[in-house]
Amino acid sequence: MSTSAVEPGTRLAERFRLEDRVSESDGATLWKAIDEILARPVAVHTFSPDFPRVHEVVTAARAASRLTDPRITQVFDAAEDDKAAYVVSEWVTGETLADLLASGPLEPERAAGLVAEAAEALAHAHEAQLYHLCLRPAHLMWTTGNTVKVLGVAVDAALAGLTTDQPALDDAEGLGRLLYAGLTGHWPGDEEEGGLPAAPMTDGHFCSPRQVTAGVPGYLDTVTVRACLPESRRGQSPLSSPSEVAEALADVARPMPIPISYPSTPAVASASHTEGLDIAHRQQTAMQPRPPAPRPISNGGGGGTLNRVLMTVVVLLVIVAVGVGAWTIGRSLGSPTDPVEAGGTTPATTAPVTAQEMEAVKPDKASGFDPLGDGDEKSDIAKLAIDGKPGTLWKTETYTSADLGRLKDGVGLLLDMGKSMQIGDVEVTLSDASGASVELKVGDSAELGSLKTVATAKDASGKTTLTPEQATSGQYVLIWFTRVPTDAGTFHGTIYEVVVHSPGSA
């Protein structure tokens, strides 16, 4: 199929309808298209007849389609034949790193968190012998779903015809350059990149981030230097792979999918205007001192000493009266109905019963649960919902409507706790998109009919707590979607993290 024959409205594989030409370079054209079967936008690459690397691109795309890390762009289809060659992948919406840097450098922790997520994703790709080789600010995206996406793994290198003898080192350096850009708003290269100016130089080599931007923490400056500034290392060992970069950034805070609710403190710097005014008013009211008691008017002459004596006596009498009153009230509250027993002793009072302390219990394993379909629902990434990392996620398959395409009544994530235990509550971090209906099911058998629904939440989003109305125990905990929200024209359920709390073993 020639380039002239590929126009808006062209349908590929009888399902992908090309809509808008996004970009074109050296015989490869990127389109925004519609998957007419699943009613979702997709990205499609098509190629002119004289494009020299069609086979390499299609081969790379097919290999990339097997990657399971949700932070890597998903490849849906790739074909190569006499009539047409194309690659279909996920259409990602959001802001690239270049977009985020349009108004200046990011907060250091945010820049580090974004790159840490990208480093972990690329480490996963490298385990499958797949590399990026051309990391630029346009390849790192913060999506509208509040997740990190690395675009173009394997495919973009094939498109550009890039090869290397040291792919791990090249990608580590690429991650270092992204971190440098995030910390400084400059690109450590000979020319500007993605609208970012070239980094300043001194003595023939690039300045370190701390030399460019005030306030960059020393450890992030060191990580950047070790990754991509060999002239400034001064004996420090280089970071020579994405996994080493990921390890160096393992302790940085990650970008969260939803706002975090922090405990209230006396100073609420991040509250809204209304909340701030309300809290300030309450604090002022609570802390406002009582007005001083009126002082007796002096009659002048020698009456001052007598007045002071009288005031002292009055104050002492008031203190004694208050003390006696408090003792009497406390005694009556401690034993409101029980009379004093013979012998002048009061009966022992029972301490109030406090709620049993809840503890977070880590599940032994997690799996996608689809008993009404093909039996499995992306179990290969289910562990990402219990890994303690809010930036990773498990999600359902994509459906054509909120009611799971009318294919089934539900689908979910099944947790095996390892043994039967009492379930106090389950905290589930969903996507920000509203419209999810979820049920909490618990039981001692991993069979849908044996799992009892103990809590429900409708139109749920963000952090959702599912609390059973009565004591519930079991080995298996199921978060069961009966409706899923929409996201960029598609429908799927998303779980970033699950935390199960138990007051003790059943």
From TrEMBL:
Low complexity bias: start-end ranges: 342-354
GO molecular function, one term: ATP binding
UniProt keyword terms in alphabetical order: Kinase, Receptor, Serine/threonine-protein kinase, Transferase
Sequence segments annotated as region (Disordered): 334-354
Domain Protein kinase: 16-310
SUPFAM superfamilies in the record: Galactose-binding domain-like, Protein kinase-like (PK-like)
Protein name listed in UniProt: Serine/threonine protein kinase
Organism classification: Bacteria, Bacillati, Actinomycetota, Actinomycetes, Streptosporangiales
